[in-house]
Write a structure and sequence with these properties.
Layout lengths: L1 E10 L5 H11 L3 E6 L5 E6 L2 H11 L7 E11 L7 E3 L1
Parallel strand pairs: 2-5
Antiparallel strand pairs: 1-3, 1-4, 2-3
Length: about 90
């Protein structure tokens, strides 16, 4: 299963980033999760087609309207874990 792990730095807490990520991921038929991290970044783990994962990474570079993205780090891999839906943790 193709997977991407994305870490987004900037103003990403308190702006609906995880909520809008969920909407975007579901529109792209991706599974996985989005969660806030203690360092005030957001982590996204998503699974699906390589093309749709790349679209999610591109979206994360802009994010929702009130976010301010400073840095996006994306790591693609294959995973044995399979998620059944996309959710906020």
């Amino acid at each position: 299963m193709d997977e991407v792990r994305i870490k987004i730095h900037g103003q990403v807490h308190g702006v609906g980033f995880r909520y809008y990520t969920t909407l975007q991921a579901r529109d792209l038929n991706l599974t996985g999760y989005a969660r806030n991290l203690p360092d005030e970044s957001v982590e996204i783990v998503a699974q699906g087609t390589k093309e749709n994962l790349e679209q999610l990474v591109d979206w994360a570079k802009t994010g929702p309207r009130h976010s301010r993205i400073e840095k996006v780090v994306a790591q693609f891999s294959n995973s044995e874990t399979k998620y059944t839906d996309f959710q906020i943790l």
